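User: structure tokens for this one?
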Amino acid sequence: MPRNQGFLPSHEPLRANPHLTIRDELTTGPFSFLNPTRAHYTHSSLSSPLAGHALNPDPTPETPSANNADHTPSPAPDAEKANTPTSDEQLSSDVEFKWRSRDNRKGRHALVVTPAKDDRAAKYITPRSTHTLRAAAHGVWKMGTRFPYWDVSWLVATVFTLGSVVWCINGSFVWLPAVAPSSEFPTEILQGGGITAFVGATVFELGSVLLMFEAVNENRAGCFGWALERALEGGRMRLRPSRDACCHHHTNRKNFVGKGVGGKADAAGSSASSEASANVHTDKTAQEDAQGGRTWQWFPSGHELTTHYLRDIGFLACLAQMFGASVFWISGFTALPGINNKMSQGLLDGIYWTPQVVGGMGFVVSGTLFMLETQKRWYVPALSVLGWHIGFWNLIGAIGFTLSGALGPDYLNSGAQYEAGLATFWGSWAFLIGSLIQWYECLDTHPVEEKGKDE
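Assistant:
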């Protein structure tokens, strides 16, 4: 069997969760020799929606609040209200949980729903699709109001956004003098361009280090992340986003990466929902046990590296990004005034322009791999997945930075110098777009897709 059609037993997501069953026929990845990047699961409570008793496993569904304080369960609703969706919900006839390798690194929990054609076909009450303008506007609002500084994925996104802004300023310094010579001020390119290049390269290096930490401290056990709730026997099952049901490290303020929040599920529910509370506790404990108690690692062991990570396309993308940023930083350092203007042309070509080309190629490889990670097949773009667009815009930015380094050494050609500055300018803006989408993505922790429409 090709490697992308099945997980190694030690790395199968959600393997310890007794309530989730993988659909083997939907396990796939873009390359047969690399690990799977996506899988679909059904939940036992969802497979038989009319079985069982009162379910209320999580009295604290996700709210805009930044803290995870305990909440008092609200009184049980009457039958009509319990089976009626709110304005942010919809009736669905089928529900599946979608695991994606990128989502797992970013602490996201994707749900695939099939909207019910009529009330008789409606078995579940689920959130509406997040692929709407209203949901997008809410996501943009969260970007300006939520600041989870303990979340490594949020730090990755904001650090790259900051670095991209610095590079946009750098692009203006090095390109505008060629477009509008009258706007140039003394030492604009040497000092303005040189200092911003060093700062931008350093920030990108920091972001790449955080990206590697995120990759090697992924939640291998996987995480369901949804609360299942049925107030009345025989009623519709309601699914809500839940921090308490999440084992990702992203919600834990007490550590940087590695260990998820634990213990809160134990107290969830009341006597009327004891079965459900045990259900969620089992889910969460099983996932934490499957992690083997590991809370942090600087880098994988040799065994993990050869058996898993070097076959993981997301890890390879992060590694290429780290390599590219490290080499590119040499160019940023040699751009500083006092260094750049003291070197001969041959030395500039060797330790200023060449690192731009080599580092830029590392960015090209990284952006390409991030795009491919989200695709079912290597030749089919995943236009409905945020991660694909992040990789796409990073690829465009990488091409711009690589072209700038390739054209820069032709000092006597004014056209080449113009294009080199322009490539830095539009490449920087492409990186900024990709970083902003990544910022949006890390806060959209519970995406909902409609089957056959948003997938």
